[in-house]
Automatic annotation (TrEMBL):
Biological processes, Gene Ontology terms: DNA-templated transcription termination; regulation of DNA-templated transcription
Entry's family note: Belongs to the MtrB family.
Subunit structure: Oligomer of 11 identical subunits arranged in doughnut-like structure.
Molecular function in Gene Ontology: RNA binding
UniProt KW Nucleotide-binding keyword: no
Keywords recorded for this protein, A-Z: RNA-binding, Transcription, Transcription regulation
Protein name: Transcription attenuation protein MtrB
Tryptophan RNA-binding attenuator protein domain: residues covered: 8-74
Species of the source: Paenibacillus borealis
Keyword match RNA-binding: yes
Any Pfam family hit: TrpBP
Length: 75
């Protein structure tokens, strides 16, 4: 397994309902789903962008924190 690049970013996701999904998307020419986590209400996930993860998709109601600020997903 390759370590995360130095200075890689993190996000924190807190589920506001059961069944919130956090989906990791790959880097490269073809963007693909590579990992999914399902959170129940109140659960928190700390996720990191890596050499393999370039984006994350959040499905469901959740609070999201990053170095860019805080926001809430609506669905």
């Amino acid at each position: 397994m390759n370590p995360a690049p130095s200075g890689s970013d993190y996000i924190v996701v807190k589920a506001k309902e059961n069944g919130v999904q956090v989906i990791g998307l790959t880097r490269g020419l073809d963007t693909r789903f590579h990992h999914t986590e399902k959170l129940d209400k109140g659960e928190v996930l700390i996720a990191q962008f890596t050499d393999h993860t370039s984006a994350m998709k959040i499905r469901g109601k959740a609070e999201i924190w990053s170095k860019h600020g805080q926001l809430e997903s609506e669905s």
